[in-house]
Write a structure and sequence with these properties.
The chain is of the alpha/beta class. The chain is built from 21 helices and 30 strands. Helices cover about 35% and strands about 20% of the residues. The strands form seven sheets. A seven-stranded parallel sheet has the order 11-12-10-13-14-9-15, sandwiched between helices. A hairpin with a 6-residue loop joins β20 and β21. α18 packs antiparallel against α19. The longest helix is centred in the last third of the chain and has 20 residues. The protein is globular, with a radius of gyration of 31 Å. The protein binds adenosine-5'-diphosphate (ADP) and zinc ion (2 copies). The site of adenosine-5'-diphosphate has 15 residues, from α8.
Length: about 750
């Protein structure tokens, strides 16, 4: 619905042209019906041919001579083409997450330029067999006809078959010119055939599905029955690693394929390992393909084409794979659904989970969404408990192997007893034991939130904001700053709790740990995996496979080493400074810590021998650490949801972060204050405003970053505030009053700002 006179539309959504907008007048009768994202019929070009177009934005002003602007003919009624769905989804994302329609369209229509089709050529016999045989004898033995002789001999040996063109030119050494003249003479035929680029060649040796356990079968039956009854729900599978989730996904996809539907399997980029892929390839062979950032543009384009034309049933990949244009999508599976990479960090800042659910509603016949995780996000578990999603639990590990023994080392006690190294005595003991016995160890440093949280190394006291329950970060000049409300205090010389002078920002990296390991155990072979050592393509896989091949005793790394790969010979996992991520300055710090610790601990003892895990911490009593050590998700959830409820954080309530970026600090702050006042004036009942305050990175490239947070129980209320804010900002922009400021929105933020 609009009061505007004009609509800007796109005619074609051939992907490169998304930016070309055309303006049309909206007939008065349509104004109370038309919405952004609608498909309309318009007269186009000189001959006014009828074309389909999509409404991208409304406008009050004519871009050119109003007398020449044509009128929209009407709303289009033939709906549900793949393009309609993409546009509808983009319109939904635009509103739900706040962004321009163009940015949303670019997201759902990954801008792959149209690529040349690849062509394969084949050579076969065209002449009747007898004539060809005669021709062969004509050539045989003649000095200047040797090439003809070779090729005819080959073709006559298998007269029914087509021989690949390259095989003839390369192996038989026949020139293109010779082939051409034979073709002109009518002796042979050269066929051309288009084919798709396929990212990886896998053999086609299909393997049957495993006989599922009762628990597994129950999930598959329930979901398929629901599907047959026309229900399109969201399901959450909560099951530890090795409990058989992937096997359930495969069985579910089988069921969907039987029903003529296709499947999208979402996997975090970092977990998209060769091992995972192989399981799908072995089961589905050629009907599955992969989409990820390492594909060439041509490969990406072809996978989209294959999906469109029915050449594949399943696509696996990270975030962008969600927008694969299957004609009959039946299911979206999101593995490791708690991963923060499922939230986009660029506009529109959408979440794959919610967007998949919306997509499921938009596709013809509807699609189901299945989430899986060993440590579900608070969001999903909360919704599962409230009945919005359906919850399944897989409690047993099917791989055998016992759960590891987890111990917590109190780093405060270590310091008190004179151990100032980064390894607790218990970890040193176990390291020695493993090195002696030729077993492998992983040392994991939790680098999240490392941006300088400040604590007392003697008593573990952490400096926190008195208003926000988040830790303060150290900034230049020794100021401690709260990133939520802007509170500041000078860093004290002595700990206010115990008087110790060991008050410092914790800084330790993988490099230091590697050095330290070498100092302690000079003969240990160490591999390091972090952002530095994985910069080049393929280096990630190389390090992992080298460790898997036992070319090293110790793998040191950041959270990267926690994902994916199985290392059956790892019997020790050391988590150094486990609480690092607890001090990250946002409300998800405990959740992230719990997830990381649980996953890291799960790396030990995957093989036949059982494993040990040592969690080193300055605050071992924290519930994230305690529950992770006990591998007790439910206990963690109960604590954490209580805290979220108390402070009205998502998922109990919703939060919108209004992010303001300005080259001028004062101007930015003034604008932010004005914006907050304006939003407050809307008098939305229950809305809580925080800030403006500087983001956790207060300035990037001389651009200041400010944020206002709004908490509100109803998401829709936040969307309305966003719409209002956008309108206000557009008005300021149009009057030239807003030059140095940009605005972005983030709903239920996950990634720090
Ligand atoms: P997850 O995805 O939860 O980590 P997987 O599906 O990878 O679990 O299963 C873990 C291991 O157990 C795999 O090696 C898999 O082949 C095996 N597995 C899973 N389900 C069964 C089953 N029903 N019978 C036998 N083995 C199974
Ligand atoms: Zn202290
Ligand atoms: Zn604060």
């Amino acid at each position: 619905m609009t009061s505007c006179e004009y609509a800007n539309v796109i005619i074609d959504i051939s992907h490169e042209k998304v930016d070309r907008l055309f303006q049309y007048r909206i007939p008065t009768a349509l104004r109370d019906k038309i919405e952004i994202g609608d498909c309309v019929n318009v007269p186009f070009g000189k001959g006014n041919t009828a074309r389909k177009a999509y409404v991208i934005e409304f406008s009050d002003e004519a871009d050119w001579d109003p007398a020449k602007i044509k009128e929209i003919a009407g709303l289009s009624t033939d709906h549900a083409s793949a393009e309609d769905i993409s546009i509808k989804l983009a319109a939904w994302m635009r509103r739900q997450y706040g962004s321009t329609m163009i940015a949303a369209l670019r997201t759902v229509l990954p801008s792959v330029k149209k690529q040349n089709k690849l062509v394969r050529k084949f050579v076969s016999l065209k002449m009747p067999l007898r004539e060809a045989t005669e021709y062969y004898y004509e050539c045989a033995g003649k000095k200047n006809q040797r090439a003809r002789e070779r090729i005819l001999k080959e073709l006559l040996a298998t007269p029914e078959e087509r021989i690949p063109y390259e095989l003839i030119t390369e192996k038989l050494n026949v020139t293109a010119a010779t082939l051409k003249s034979l073709q002109d003479k009518g002796v042979i035929r050269i066929d051309e055939e288009e084919y798709f680029r396929k990212p990886e060649a896998f053999n086609d040796s299909r393997y049957g599905a495993k006989t599922l356990s009762d628990e597994q079968q129950n999930i598959v039956d329930t979901v398929s029955d629901d599907f047959d009854k026309g229900k399109r729900d969201t399901y959450l599978i909560h099951g530890i690693t090795g409990s058989g989730k992937t096997e359930v996904y495969i069985a579910l996809i089988d069921e969907m394929i039987k029903r003529g539907r296709q499947a999208i399997v979402m996997i975090p980029e970092i977990a998209l390992t060769y091992q995972t892929l192989m399981r799908f390839y072995r089961h589905f062979g050629d009907r599955v393909s992969v989409m990820n950032s390492s594909l060439s543009p041509g490969e990406k384009f072809d996978q989209m084409e294959r999906a469109r034309c029915g050449d594949i049933d399943i696509i696996i990949g990270p975030r962008s794979a969600l927008f694969t244009p299957f004609p009959n999508l039946g299911i979206v599976i999101i593995d490791e659904e708690h991963e923060s990479s499922y939230k986009s960090e660029t506009m529109p800042k959408f979440h794959v989970r919610e967007t998949a659910i919306e997509l499921g509603k938009l596709v013809p016949g509807g699609a189901m969404v299945v989430l899986g995780s060993a440590t579900p996000s608070l969001e999903s578990y909360y919704r599962a408990k409230s009945g919005e999603y359906r919850l399944f639990e897989l409690k047993r590990r099917l791989t055998g192997g016992t759960l590891p023994t987890v111990e917590i080392a109190d780093l405060r006690l270590e310091l008190r007893s004179g151990n100032r190294s980064i390894f607790s005595r218990r970890l040193q003991e176990l390291m020695e034991d493993r090195l002696e016995n030729g077993e492998q160890a992983m040392l994991f440093i939790n680098r999240r939130g490392l941006a300088g949280f400040v604590s007392c190394r003697a008593c573990g006291h952490v400096f926190k904001c008195p208003h926000c329950d988040v830790s303060l970060s150290e900034h230049r000049g020794g100021q401690l700053v709260c990133h939520y409300c802007g509170y500041q205090e000078a860093k004290p010389k002595l700990c206010p709790k115990c008087g110790s002078k060991y008050v410092s920002a914790f800084r330790a990296g993988t490099q230091q740990i590697e050095d330290e390991v070498k100092k302690f155990w000079p003969r240990a072979r160490v591999l390091r995996m972090d952002a530095d050592t994985t910069r080049t393509k393929g280096s990630y896989d190389k390090i992992l496979s080298s460790f898997a091949n036992k070319e090293a005793d110790v793998l040191v790394g950041t959270q990267m080493i926690v994902k994916g790969h199985d290392f059956p010979d790892v019997t020790l996992v050391g988590i150094l400074a486990a609480d690092m991520s607890l001090y990250a300055n946002d409300y998800r710090a405990s959740e992230r810590t719990f997830q990381l610790l649980t996953q890291a601990a799960g790396r030990a003892g995957r093989g036949k021998r059982s494993g040990n895990v040592v969690i080193q911490s300055y605050q071992p009593e924290h519930y994230s650490i305690q529950t992770a050590a006990a591998q007790d998700y439910d206990a963690f959830y109960e604590e954490e949801i209580g805290y979220r409820d108390l402070l009205r954080y998502p998922p109990v309530s919703h939060m919108m972060s209004v992010q303001i970026q300005s080259r001028d600090e004062n101007e930015g702050m003034q604008f932010a204050n004005r914006l907050r006042a304006l939003m407050e004036q809307q008098k939305i009942p229950g809305a809580v405003f925080i800030g403006p305050a500087f983001g956790s990175i207060g300035k990037i490239n001389d651009v200041y970053r400010l944020a206002i947070y709004v908490k509100l129980d109803e998401y829709e209320g936040l969307v309305r505030l966003k719409d209002m804010t956008e309108k206000y900002v557009r008005m300021l922009e149009d009057s030239g009053k807003l030059r140095n400021i940009t605005l972005q929105f983030d709903f239920d933020p996950i990634n720090g700002y």
